[in-house]
Design brief:
The complex is a heterodimer of chains A (about 190) and B (about 300).
Chain A: H1 4-16, E1 20-27, H2 34-41, E2 55-62, E3 65-72, E4 91-97, H3 104-116, E5 125-130, H4 140-146, E6 157-161, H5 170-180
Parallel strand pairs in A: 1-3, 1-4, 4-5, 5-6
Antiparallel strand pairs in A: 2-3
Chain B: H1 2-26, H2 30-37, H3 42-54, H4 58-62, H5 71-81, H6 90-118, H7 126-139, H8 171-184, H9 186-195, H10 205-221, H11 226-232, H12 239-260, H13 268-283
Helix pairs in contact in B: 2-3, 3-6, 3-11, 5-6, 6-8, 7-8, 8-9, 8-10, 8-12, 10-12
Classes of the chains: A alpha/beta (about 190), B mainly alpha (about 300).
Chain lengths: ~190, ~300
């Protein structure tokens, strides 16, 4: 049996182990669900969300990492500012409203432009096919095909279906993020 | 530790002992002393609310959560429980009634605001659509919308070509507030809209408006708006009083934003927080009344 002293020292070690800081960039069109996802990650109330002017940032502890998540507004008017946040990004999370088929083309274009950015080259990308709680949501496989994700060869990537509203699939996505934090191709 | 002990002793023993002594000396109960000693408004109503909430008597404790319909009966029960004769102290009943109306009224107002917030914007609902169109025509009197779904919505600060997805967690409350501001302060809202199009320091009028609805809502929910409303309304506060407070926020935020000269819209949340703290500071003063004062 573990003595109290032993247990305490283990706890102390766990506490003192410095977490690796990870910079995560959360992008996507307006109304994709980025802020809801951010609040879901931080276990905060998601019922009073308003459109993001500018950005939100939160730090979340996960699997020995300190994830600094930057949620940048998705409105067309402020997309030109996205590039100000590219530097030192460890993982890019791109959020898609899977039920908004009318904007698949627009979201695909934005994603393609991001993947072309020099400052984001080699950065692992997780695509969240969000809003799977809606009946009209397209499945992740359909989105992957529509966005030609299989042509991405210069980095590791993953598509994960989720519902930021119910939390389903979010943890699976974050597990992938933690596994691939250090997979940045030089 | 000592402080906790003192608080415990005070709340459980000394407070009642003090009250008993004061009662013997003044021949009045605590509620009477509060109503006699303090001017009507937040200072009096806050003290009454606290005194009722701490009371050992069920009748008195119930009074802070009483329904409007039961309010007068509750008032009679308090008079009876405290053995206060209407003839001996006729002002007391009237004054206490106002306090109870304010205390219950605040809670009722929150429920009404919450109901509006919980109602999502629905583009199949004609009433919702009409209000959205009215907002457009009030803000843009010289421009027609070319269609229901159009990039023009961006001109009044919505994000995309259909505003319906921008109300989010604020639901109809966000739209009703925006519309109220444009209806009652038409000139001011147009001026603010035109200023919000500033090439460098501009912001999205409607989106910021919805964000300020969230600010007003959370201030109401947390009870921070109590002093303001207790001072402003000698009775039951109405939805209109909430909308008026929202108008004050819209007007003041715009002034604040341009005084601060932020580098770009990306710093919005930082300045929002600063503004929020300033408003909370103002609201913490018991004599506060925040109303929109137009600069002529």
């Amino acid at each position: 049996m573990l003595s109290v002293k032993g247990l305490l020292s283990i706890l102390r070690k766990l506490k003192s182990a410095p977490d690796q800081e990870v910079r995560i960039l959360l992008l996507g069109l307006d109304n994709a669900g980025k802020t809801t996802l951010l609040k879901q990650l931080a276990s905060e109330d998601i019922s009073h969300i308003t459109p993001t002017q500018g950005f939100n940032i939160k730090s979340v502890q996960s699997q020995g990492f300190k994830l600094n998540v930057w949620d940048i507004g998705g409105q067309r008017k402020i997309r030109p500012y996205w590039r100000n946040y590219f530097e030192n990004t460890d993982v890019l999370i791109y959020v898609i409203d899977s039920a908004d088929r009318k904007r698949f083309e627009e979201t695909g274009q934005e994603l393609a432009e991001l993947l072309d950015e020099e400052k984001l080259s080699g950065v692992p990308v997780l695509i969240f096919a969000n809003k799977q709680d809606l009946l009209t949501a397209a499945p992740a496989s359909e989105i992957a095909e529509g966005l030609n994700l299989h042509t991405i060869r210069d980095r590791v990537w993953q598509i994960q279906s989720c519902s930021a509203l119910t939390g389903e699939g979010v943890q699976d996505g974050m597990n992938w993020v933690c596994k691939n934090v250090n997979a940045k191709k030089k | 530790m000592l402080l906790h002990l003192w608080q415990y002793l005070y709340n459980n023993y000394f407070r009642f002992l003090m009250k008993w002594i004061l009662r013997q000396v003044t021949r009045k109960c605590e509620l009477q002393r509060i109503v006699d000693g303090l001017e009507p408004g937040a200072s009096r109503t806050h003290r009454v609310e606290y005194s009722l909430g701490c009371s050992k008597s069920k009748v008195l404790r119930r009074a802070v959560n009483v329904d409007m319909d039961d309010l007068d009966k509750c008032l009679m029960d308090i008079m009876k429980a405290k053995k206060i004769h209407k003839q001996k102290d006729p002002r007391f009943q009237v004054s206490l009634r106002v306090c109870l109306l304010q205390i219950s009224g605040y809670k009722q107002l929150y429920l009404r605001v919450e109901n509006l917030r919980k109602q999502p914007y629905d583009s199949n609902n004609d009433e919702h659509e009409e209000q959205l169109m009215e907002l457009w025509s009030l803000l843009m009197p010289n421009q027609e919308l070319v269609s229901r779904i159009t990039k023009q919505w961006g001109d009044i600060g919505f994000q995309g070509d259909d505003p319906k997805t921008d109300f989010r967690g604020m639901g109809m409350l966000g739209l009703v507030n925006l519309l109220y501001f444009s209806k009652h302060y038409t000139e001011e809202s147009r001026q603010i809209l035109s200023r919000s199009n500033h090439p460098k320091m501009g912001y999205s009028y409607a989106i910021v408006g919805i964000n300020l609805t969230e600010m007003a809502y959370s201030l109401l929910k947390s009870g921070t708006l109590k002093s303001h409303l207790y001072n402003l309304v000698p009775g039951v506060p109405q939805l209109e009083h909430f909308h008026q407070f929202y108008c004050y926020l819209m007007y003041e935020f715009d002034k604040f934003w341009f005084q601060e000269e932020p580098e770009s819209i990306m710093l919005f949340n930082q300045y929002r927080e600063k503004f929020h703290n300033r408003i909370k500071g103002l609201l913490s003063d018991q004599n506060v009344v925040l109303t929109l004062k137009k600069a002529n």
